[in-house]
Automatic annotation (TrEMBL):
SMART domains: malic (SM01274), Malic_M (SM00919). Residues 263-513 form the Malic enzyme NAD-binding domain. Keywords: Metal-binding, NAD, Oxidoreductase. NCBIfam families: PRK13529.1 (NF010052). InterPro entries: Aminoacid_DH-like_N_sf, Malic_N_dom, Malic_N_dom_sf, Malic_NAD-bd, Malic_OxRdtase, NAD(P)-bd_dom_sf. It comes from the Bacteria. This is NAD-dependent malic enzyme. Residues 73-253 form the Malic enzyme N-terminal domain. PANTHER family: MALIC ENZYME-RELATED, NAD-DEPENDENT MALIC ENZYME, MITOCHONDRIAL. The keyword Oxidoreductase applies.
Length: 540
């Protein structure tokens, strides 16, 4: 065999998009010069899945399973996705939350092969050259992070790359976006995590975070380079710290097809799940008294979508806002507080309202005091503060409400506002509970953004949308809320995520059309036409 031929065969095996491992047939081995490079056994996708499952079963913990799956993804994408797709309930927690948290924290240990792009501040003038790579010609969906607020784990610097990689694996697994069409990107602007900067093994840029105009200019040149290279691309912002998350969304949502999953995806997921819960209690949305704990990116996004949903029920803006109380690190958000973010200002209550309220020992109005005064029917946590839904908070809420809806959404498990089993015990089993991470408690719903973002992305792409509108997220939330789940759970089972994504995509595409941002016509946006766009992991 001439050496050049062997080099091509090796290239085929080392590219995860072309490698089939032992599943290359005899005929392919003849034609492509693969004999000798592969063991003699000719396998199938099914036998490969069975082999990988046996390896996963024998591993000591989920972090090692995560690392193993990452390596598999980098050596054979079809096999990786077929394995994930075949058992979503088991694989989702391994490739995404909660295990991806450890994957980010220990990213420097497990980085092996290039996947996606690291765009670092020192390379800021090279961004267009880096994006020019012809291997990236097919890109349609980008997930980008700067690693500053990874789940509830804070600043993980370059290790934040685990999040775009994980989210895009779910785009493929759930919405059938082809692996060659997705691109994870990490904007490495340094890290303020001194532990990482001092760690000799850290693979990121050892510099304090670039801030202010310099940061803005860097992100701007990134977005311009992206839109020059892929004009219709969908750009999803992920795990930016609260202030940047809001600023970047506001700056770019009217310039390209773009959304922030922490703000808008979480909002649609939480509101969809809440609509399903309310449906179960037989009450109506406008009769709810809603307390939000943690008014950052996720919490304020939920609040704004709730305001929209309440307005759609006939309330005016003021009446809609009057049904929501937001508690943040300094207690109930009041309009006379200093240092409120713009989204928090929109949620602030009038100080006169709290004049007669009972205060805590320091004279403050924390969650317990708010729950005591407001008697909420719904409590949503997006604070990243473990244990903040205390027994007293849950018992007080449950005293005033037959079926309290309680969603401790913070991720990962170690940051949840309460353990769902405790919430159930403290409410005598009456609470309707949803958590961000999976806890394995029967009857508890996992309020995971994976119910929304893959379908939003697929719907936006199918519609040839130029923008992601609020109406598209509201449509996604309503569709999710109408799906329901089995038994006590509020959402469909994880194994049905592909049909969930398709259903969401159909309504999102229709909303894009209704909002005048679609380029495709009505006839292209039927369920069958959108389903036909979804890639299934199989060798061809
Ligand atoms: P963020 O950092 O923007 O917001 C956190 C907010 O909590 C901030 O406003 C902060 O001031 C507030 N906070 C901090 N300490 C507090 C305290 N002691 N009491 C009250 N509030 C306090 O972060 P983001 O993006 O909003 O995420 C928050 C949490 O929500 C994270 O743990 C994240 O994993 C989780 N999350 C869950 C999702 C889901 O379940 N589907 C989706 C997105 C986020």
């Amino acid at each position: 065999m001439p050496p050049a031929f062997h080099a091509a065969a090796r290239a085929l095996l080392s590219d995860p998009l072309t490698n089939k491992g032992t599943a290359f047939t005899e005929a392919e081995r003849d034609r492509l010069g693969l004999h000798g490079l592969l063991p003699p056994h000719v396998g199938t996708l099914d036998s490969q899945i069975a082999r990988r499952r046996r390896v996963l079963d024998g591993m000591a913990d989920d972090f090692h399973r995560y690392a193993f799956l990452r390596e598999l993804q980098d050596s054979n994408e079809v096999l990786f996705h077929a394995l994930v797709q075949a058992d979503l309930p088991r694989m989702l927690p391994l490739v995404y939350t909660p295990t991806v948290g450890a994957g980010c924290e220990r990213f420097s240990e497990i980085w092996r092969k290039p996947r996606g792009l690291f765009l670092s501040h020192p390379n800021r003038d090279r961004i267009p050259d880096i994006l020019a790579d012809p291997a990236l010609d097919r890109v349609k969906v980008i997930v980008v992070s700067d690693g500053e607020r990874i789940l509830g784990l804070g600043d993980q610097g370059a290790g934040g790359m685990g999040i775009p990689i994980g989210k895009l694996a779910l785009y493929t697994a759930c919405a059938g976006i082809h692996p060659a069409e997705v691109l994870p990107i990490l904007l490495d602007v340094g890290t303020d995590n001194a532990g990482l900067r001092d760690d000799p093994l850290y693979v990121g840029w050892r510099n304090p975070r670039v801030r202010g105009e310099d940061y803005g200019g860097f992100v701007d040149s990134f977005v311009s380079a992206v839109t020059d290279r892929w004009p219709g691309v969908l750009l999803q912002w992920e795990d930016f710290a609260g202030h940047n998350a809001h600023d970047l969304l506001a700056r770019y949502r009217d310039r390209l097809l773009s959304f922030n999953d922490d703000i808008q995806g979480t909002a649609a997921t939480a509101v969809g799940t809440l609509l399903s819960a309310i449906h179960r209690t037989g009450a109506s949305l406008i009769d709810q008294r809603i307390v939000l704990f943690g008014a950052g990116a996720a919490g304020s996004g939920v609040a704004e979508l709730l305001v929209q949903a309440l307005r759609a029920e006939g309330l005016d803006e003021a009446a809609a806002r009057a049904r929501i109380w937001a508690v943040d690190r300094d207690g109930l958000i009041l309009s006379d507080m200093a240092k409120l973010t713009p989204p928090q200002m929109r949620l602030a209550r009038h100080p006169a309202e709290v004049a007669g309220w009972m205060r805590d020992a320091e004279g403050g109005l924390g969650l317990l005091e708010t729950v005591r005064a407001v008697r909420p029917t719904v409590l949503i946590g997006a604070s990243g503060q473990a244990g903040s839904f205390t027994e007293a908070v849950v018992r007080t809420m449950a005293e005033g409400c037959a079926r309290p809806v309680i969603f401790p959404l913070s991720n990962p498990v170690s940051r949840a506002e309460a353990h769902p089993a405790d919430v159930l015990a403290w409410s005598d089993g009456r609470a309707i509970v949803g958590t961000g991470s999976p806890f394995g408690v029967p009857g508890v719903t996992q309020v995971n953004n994976v119910y929304i973002f893959p379908g939003v992305g697929l719907g936006a792409l199918a519609a040839g949308a130029t923008r992601v509108t609020d109406g598209m997220f509201m449509a996604a939330a309503r569709a999710l809320g109408a799906m329901g789940g089995a038994g006590e759970t509020l959402l469909p089972a994880i194994e049905n995520l592909r049909s969930v994504a398709l259903r969401v995509a159909v309504v999102v595409a229709a909303a894009a059309l209704a909002d005048g941002v679609a380029s495709a016509g009505d006839e292209e946006l039927t369920e069958a036409r959108i389903a036909a766009l979804m890639w299934d992991a199989a060798y061809n």
